[in-house]
Design brief:
Blueprint (H helix, E strand, L loop, with lengths): L1 H27 L5 H20 L2 E17 L4 E14 L7 H6 L7 E13 L1 E7 L15 E16 L1 H10 L20 H14 L3 H13 L1 H28 L9 E2 L13 E2 L9
């Protein structure tokens, strides 16, 4: 029995040593700031998802036209078509994420084009007869290394392109290289504290019910028994409801790391002089 106790004591001593050392690291080393770790991880994951979405783009157009074309880079093309079209190219096929390009990158969601032309392509050669319509591109994008296909069927035209350069950008992103220079970067002006928001949301959900007795006691002490049972109860129920709703919102949306919506942040604040209020959520455009 004695050796077992000695081993247990030694094990606990080692754990205590590492715990103390880890505490010192957390206090002194920014690498162990949980908020920063979460924000950096979110940004890294989002940039990889964004790079993946950029690999395939598409487009749609309308107008009289007939023909088709397929190309494996501009050195291996085959097809012919003639049309008078007006259309758009979109960045990828995941529609909800189109808004990210608009808000985060300050880029238009759609790239417009309009043109009247006839073209034929074989291998690296292309013959094209165009007529200028407007000061915008006349056709869907034909980037040098794209693998693309276009079909013009009477009044409806479709386009899809796979971009090898974006695929390489996606792979390079895993090692921190951004050849396309399109990764999102941390906005140091906007403070994001996701770990704090998670803790706040969890506590508001778990302890929000205490708003009822706390407000009854507070109003009773300040105004008497009857106001405590009426006004205090009403305030408590209302604030309990607010904390529960805000707690759910903060817990679900904790990756955004907003500033507190309810003040005081917690049901039992250290500073008892803070006025109770609900603030407008602090949304930030850029991470």
């Amino acid at each position: 029995m004695m050796p077992n106790r000695l081993f247990r004591a030694a094990g606990l001593s080692v754990l205590a040593f590492f715990a103390i050392g880890l505490t010192e690291l957390k206090a002194d080393d920014e690498m162990f700031d949980m908020n920063s770790i979460i924000v950096d991880s979110q940004l890294y994951i989002w940039n990889r998802v964004s790079d993946l979405l950029d690999i395939i783009r598409g487009g749609i157009a309308g107008g009289p036209g007939i023909g088709a074309e397929i190309a494996i880079t501009e050195y291996a093309q085959l097809g012919a078509y003639a049309n008078h079209e007006r259309g758009v190219t979109f960045p990828h096929f995941v529609i909800p994420f189109w808004l990210v390009d608009y808000y985060e990158r300050n880029e238009p969601i759609f790239v417009n084009h309009e043109g009247k032309y006839a073209t034929a392509a074989f291998g690296p050669w292309r013959v094209e007869n165009t007529q200028e319509i407007a000061a915008i591109p006349r056709h869907f994008p034909r980037d040098k290394w794209d693998i693309r296909a276009q079909l013009d069927a009477a009044l409806l035209h479709a386009y899809i392109a796979i971009r090898p350069t974006e695929f390489l950008d996606f792979l390079a992103g895993f090692v921190g290289w951004d050849p396309s220079a399109d990764d999102q970067h941390l906005d140091y002006v906007a403070t994001r504290l996701p770990a704090d928001q998670f803790g706040r949301g969890f506590c508001n959900i778990l302890f929000g019910i205490f708003e009822i007795p706390v407000n009854i006691l507070r109003v009773t002490a300040a105004e008497g028994d009857l106001p405590g049972l009426s006004k205090g109860l009403g305030l408590g129920v209302w604030r309990f409801f607010c904390r529960e709703v805000v707690g759910v919102v903060e817990l679900v949306a904790f990756p955004f790391g907003w500033q507190p919506i309810i003040e005081p942040d917690y049901i039992f604040p250290i500073n008892q002089n803070v006025s109770w209020r609900v603030r407008r959520p602090a949304f930030h455009k850029q991470y």
